[in-house]
Amino acid sequence: MRPDDPSLKRMIPPTLKLHEKFYLPQIVGGLLVTGKHILSASLGKGAITVSYPEDQHVPSANYRGVHRLNKDEQGRVKCVACMLCATACPAHCIDIVGATAPESWSDREKYCESFVIDELRCIYCGMCEEACPVEAIELTGLYDLTGLSREQMIFDKTKLLSVFDLTRDAEPMRYTTPPPKAGPRPTEVEPSGLPGPKA
Ligand code: SF4
Ligand code: SF4
After folding, report:
1. Ranges assigned E (strand) in 51-149
2. What confidence tens digit (pLDDT) does each residue in 167-191 have?
3. Ligand nearest the Cα atom of residue 98
4. What residue spans of the chain are helical by DSSP H?
5. What is the rounded CA–CA span in Å between residue 99 and residue 76?
6. Mutation test residue for ligand 1: of 66, 67, 93, the one with most atoms within 8 Å of CB
């Protein structure tokens, strides 16, 4: 498009008055909103805070908190190490190492030997759970998991599976479809849900 194109619409910045240059209308407007909330809360109406931690906040059903790795009915991690979640992740905070599944796992060729999510880099967009073909990764309603160091907020497979154990009753898996190529179920599963020694 040429600069002299008549269809071009030029935006002329408005000339601000002195009080507008100092953002006075915006400041007064903000103070009015704050005063309105203080007044309604002191009258016992419209308080939108809770006395945490005595009162627990209940997030909306659409809230996306920390991740969990789901287990199947046999207690095995559902992940088949397809890497789709890591590929879809815009923050590049998922790191997976796949390995050949034990021979007794006849419904899949691979599983995740290592699965790490950096919860500090994550933007909780939910793209990973959208991308997962076997519903192995889900974001939960947990919002108060904290760490005392950056390292503690890097969740490995054990921790992600423990989040599943923590939330499985309160938040049933949204999907219960079996993994692709489901076949006869293995009879030998390690109690931890993690794969046993490879054959
Ligand atoms: S929620 Fe988004 S940013 Fe976080 S791990 Fe999943 S895809 Fe990546
Ligand atoms: S969590 Fe799902 S998308 Fe990610 S590697 Fe495992 S099976 Fe694939």
Report:
1. 67-69, 94-100, 110-118, 137-139
2. 999 888 876 554 444 333 333 333 3
3. 2
4. 18-21, 24-42, 84-88, 127-131, 157-167
5. 14
6. 93
